[in-house]
Amino acid sequence: MISGVPSYTIPDDEPVEDIDKEDRDNQFTCSQYSNDVYQYLRDLQVQLQPNPNYMQQQIHISSKLRAYCVDWVVDLHRTLSQTYQTSLQADTLFLSISLFDRFLSRKVVSQEKLYLVALGCFFVASKFEETYYPSVDQLLKFAPDVGKKEDLLKMERIILSELRYSLGAPTPLTFLKRYAKAAHADSTVGMLSRFMSEYSLTSYPLCTKYLPSHIAAASISHALRIS
């Protein structure tokens, strides 16, 4: 648990709805393992959480510059999704920002290299999440000022090495689907909660001080209130 984040324990006498009950006979959902899977993901998110104080060691960049860079990645994701026939998964966007913050937690980056790091994280995330991911040439077509082909490929290797090939970090989107099911959320709530989770990506404090599962829970809760 991250310091300062409140926890809640369900009392023994409080009934808990079995949200997987209707899927018990569906062998493709593997619902009997749902609790174990999400417990593993909750543990994993703690292990792979970025350093909440990493900006203190980043002498060349600020949280404001990070926000501009993340916003640029969001635009890149949207542009690529609209340009090609196969839309990129939202998971690619969320994972790329997770990798970005984890990389910045481990390595000091100059202002000149920040966007190259972000593009490298996006490239790695797209390979991890997508069946058909953008090529280096396609990425550089939309980001010609970031660097050359060899620069992006070198940065990819550096990112993989620094993160020790540990790429499958849970993101708010990982938990949103589960929480939406628990809340019996309709499509409007689902859309609003995803929008709020995506909006949180630009916030350095939110992405580093709060766990992805907490951001997802807050997004669902707020979406339910305003829908």
From TrEMBL:
Record-linked SMART domains? CYCLIN
InterPro entries found in the cross-reference section: Cyclin (IPR039361), Cyclin-like_dom (IPR013763), Cyclin-like_sf (IPR036915), Cyclin_A/B-like (IPR046965), Cyclin_C-dom (IPR004367), Cyclin_N (IPR006671)
Cite the entry's keywords alphabetically.
Answer: Cell cycle, Cell division, Cyclin
The Acidic residues compositionally biased stretches are 11-20
Record Pfam families: Cyclin_C, Cyclin_N
Q: Which Gene3D superfamilies match?
A: Cyclin-like (1.10.472.10)
Q: Select a single GO molecular function from the record's annotations and give it.
A: cyclin-dependent protein serine/threonine kinase regulator activity
Q: Where is this region: Disordered?
A: 1-22
- All copies of the Cyclin-like domain together span 71-161
For this entry, list what GO says about its biological process: cell division; mitotic cell cycle phase transition
Q: Which family does it belong to?
A: Belongs to the cyclin family.
Specify the protein name: Putative cyclin B
Q: What organism is the protein native to?
A: Streblomastix strix
